[in-house]
User: What shape does this take?
Amino acid sequence: MKFHRDHPEISLAGMGSTQFWNQDSEQTSRCFRMAIEECGITLIDTAELYKDGECEKSVAKALKGIVRDSYYLTGKVSPENACAGKMEESLKKSLLHLDTDHFDLYLLHWRENVDLQEFVNEAERFVKQGLIRHWGVSNFDTDDMKDLLSCENGENCFCDQILYNVVTRGPEYDLFPYLKKHGIMAMAYGSTDYRRGGKDLLGNNALIKEICEKTGLCVPSLMLRFVSRNNDIPALFRTSNPVHLKENLKCFDSDVERYMNLIEKEFPAPDHKVVLEKI
Ligand SMILES: NC(=O)c1ccc[n+]([C@@H]2O[C@H](COP(=O)([O-])OP(=O)(O)OC[C@H]3O[C@@H](n4cnc5c(N)ncnc54)[C@H](OP(=O)(O)O)[C@@H]3O)[C@@H](O)[C@H]2O)c1
Assistant: This one.
């Protein structure tokens, strides 16, 4: 496994938790635990939204007995709960579901019509109380980030979790430079583009096929490394399948980095503003 160049406790591959949405099976649970215990993943992502807290409970069940300091736990508050009257209750409920006393990172899931100053005030209060170590946002485009950073203490935002992959490189135009300027980490979901048909699109591309053949990597694995190629954007994915898990992580033990320039040229980043996509 490789780790974030500025945050060595955060692995460049992160395990999502929506695989528990449809099947909280023994295999899903085993695969999740294997990711942490055997494969070196430290980053875990969940949210109160996922099956109304049930995915958080499944994560806790899968992690039972694993030392808390060995993983970096990210949770999310839904916009309707991101206000002074409700956020504390939401956070405490999530922590209870996850059987832990703190989140490493707690995000606003998406902006909607949240009062950003109120969200920041609450998040800062939870940091002081030790309930969260860092706070951040998700699905925030550049203008949303500007609004956030105009709030008092807004500059304490740690992360923006967004949709980013080889075919949605819009954030490279303006969002990533903005985040970098303010020392805010980007984290990617949809990294493999599998959910949106990337399996066919990317799997049929001659260059991608050739690189996969030469390196012995599968397409999702190559895509995870593309997203994290500069060692500064952790790439989330999910799987219930231990074979997929191992296959996907092979890129971190390969010298596939030398092909990244070719992929960048084949799937160029836009030279103009593209509105941030969301799933
Ligand atoms: N902030 C947000 O708004 C937001 C939005 C979406 C997701 N997320 C987070 O990101 C996580 C990942 O979500 P995602 O949408 O990016 O999912 P994804 O990783 O694209 O996974 C989609 C599907 O790909 C399959 N897959 C994975 N590896 C494979 C392989 N080697 N070969 C064939 N199929 C493979 C998985 O099925 P198998 O089980 O069969 O492997 C899975 O069902 C979520 O769990 C969630 O925590 C956040």
